[in-house]
Design goal:
With 294 residues, this protein is an alpha/beta fold. Helices cover 24% and strands 27% of the residues. The protein has a single domain, classed as Nitrilase/N-carbamoyl-D-aminoacid amidohydrolase, CATH 3.60.110.10. The strands form three sheets. Strands 5-4-3-2-1-15 form a six-stranded mixed β-sheet. Strands 6-7-8-10-13-14 form a six-stranded mixed β-sheet, covered by helices on one side. It starts with 6 loop residues before the first strand and ends in a 21-residue tail after the last helix. 44% of the residues are buried.
């Protein structure tokens, strides 16, 4: 079996204004910058066209949604073709009247949509009121064959679930991308902030180790909202190798672009030495399909 080619991923960590046009223009400029740094697969953060609107439950915010295909995928598709890169774009998808999803579109180097992934796990927590806006994904856990390699994509809250990472990795992806919007509640940061951020990174590094794949998480930065209903997004976008070692990491508060080279053959090397897939007891796992074991 021939060796697989190395590829370079670019993670765009940025702040967002209340103007979707400004955010899209900024994202396009950052994709240009990532391509200049030789990135081949560029991933934007979750819901990059707007501030993280799920902090509130307001019917008028559904106006932020758009169809896929739609205006943003059209623009980013043209950009992907022009630059010869793959773009992963997280969007508020209007699927039909009253049916909305948190969706990642994968745009290929020919400018077409190579596929979409609809966020499977939808949170409902203080300042993360996503169940008000999003219908759970119905496409399952997927892989996408791009010009530069086979990839898996999930979105934010999905990153806490080992089942999703396993199901995606089992389809052959050499890297799992997680567009993200996660941050601190201002009144919790001092006491719990360090532990929350550490848990967020640890669980994703564990996905890399357990599945022998690269993991790339891209988060936003900046404070959005007011003192009572605001979030400080903690950035810290990073790429971990198939044994969970952090290869590159952004800061907690600055806009940055990370470009990291990944070698799919490293997945094979790690899996030979740590054969977790070989030793899985798939005959013993049916209980995991239950909500709880009483």
């Amino acid at each position: 079996m021939p060796a697989e080619s190395k590829f370079r991923v670019g993670l765009v960590q940025m702040s967002c204004s209340t103007n979707p046009k400004e955010n899209l223009a900024k994202a396009e400029a950052r994709i240009h910058d990532a391509a200049k740094k030789k990135a081949q697969i560029v991933c934007l953060q979750e819901l990059f066209r707007s501030q993280y609107f799920c902090r509130e439950e307001k019917a008028e915010l559904f106006e932020l949604a758009e169809t896929i295909p739609g205006p943003t995928t059209d623009r980013l598709g043209k950009l992907a073709k022009k630059l010869g890169v793959v773009i992963i774009a997280s969007l508020f998808e209007k699927r039909a009247a009253g049916v909305y999803h948190n969706t990642a579109a994968i745009l290929g180097t020919d400018g077409t949509i190579e596929g979409i992934y609809r966020k499977m796990h939808i949170p409902d927590d203080p300042l993360f009121f996503e169940k008000y806006y999003f219908t759970p994904g119905d496409l399952g856990f997927l892989n996408f064959d791009t010009k530069f390699g086979r990839i898996g994509v999930q979105v934010c809250w999905d990153q806490w679930y080992p089942e999703g990472a396993r199901a995606t990795a089992m389809l052959g992806a050499s890297i799992l991308f997680y567009p993200t919007a996660i941050g601190w509640h201002p009144h919790e940061k001092a006491e719990f902030g360090a532990g929350q951020r550490d848990a967020w990174q640890t669980i994703q590094r564990a996905h890399a180790i357990a599945n022998g794949v690269y993991v790339a998480a891209v988060n936003r930065v900046g404070f959005e909202g007011d003192e009572n209903s605001g979030l400080e997004f903690w950035g810290t976008s990073f790429v971990a190798d198939p044994f969970g070692q952090v290869m590159a990491q952004a800061s907690t508060g600055k806009e940055e672009i990370l470009v990291v080279e990944c070698d799919p053959n490293r997945c094979d090397e790690v899996r030979r030495n740590w054969p977790f897939f070989r030793d899985r007891r798939i005959d013993a796992y049916p209980p995991i399909l239950q909500r709880w074991r009483d």
